[in-house]
TrEMBL record:
Belongs to the DNA polymerase type-B family. Its main location: nucleus. This is DNA polymerase epsilon catalytic subunit. Keywords: 4Fe-4S, DNA replication, DNA-binding, DNA-directed DNA polymerase, Iron, Iron-sulfur, Metal-binding, Nucleotidyltransferase, Nucleus, Transferase, Zinc, Zinc-finger. The keyword Transport does not apply. InterPro entries: POL2. Residues 1-21 are annotated as: Disordered. The keyword Nucleus applies. GO terms for biological process: base-excision repair, gap-filling; DNA replication proofreading; leading strand elongation; mitotic cell cycle; nucleotide-excision repair, DNA gap filling. DNA polymerase II participates in chromosomal DNA replication. Its EC number is 2.7.7.7. It comes from Bugula neritina (Brown bryozoan). Transmembrane segments: none annotated.
Length: 111
């Protein structure tokens, strides 16, 4: 049996401008914050030092001062007295590129 692509697939949402993805990410971030609040993990924004055990972390999105969506990491902590809090830090995602052995010297000169 041979499978052949008919070309009839139509995606559910096709948005040429790409705004739909940003809206979904922002909506997901808001929902995650609401769930975190229900579970007792309020975002910590003060400059005061707190000590706690790191119990979880995951990627997230936040809005910066210019209302742009920025990648971030949520860190979840529990203090000695049982209080919970989370800290959100923005980060710039990156990826690694593998190169062939014969091109390694050229790449080292570039960097």
């Amino acid at each position: 049996m041979v499978l052949q692509n008919t070309g009839q697939f139509v995606p559910e949402h096709s948005n040429q401008e790409g705004d739909d993805g940003v809206d979904k990410r922002l909506e997901a971030a808001i929902i995650n914050d609401e769930i975190d609040l229900k579970l007792g993990f309020e975002r910590y924004k003060e400059a005061k030092e707190r000590i706690g055990w790191l119990v979880n972390l995951h990627t997230s999105d936040i809005q910066d001062e210019e209302k742009r969506l920025v990648s971030a990491v949520d860190f979840y902590f529990i203090e000695e007295d049982g209080n919970r809090f989370k800290v959100t830090l923005p980060y710039k995602p990156y990826f690694y590129v593998a190169c062939q052995d014969k091109t390694r010297k050229k790449l080292l000169r570039i960097s």
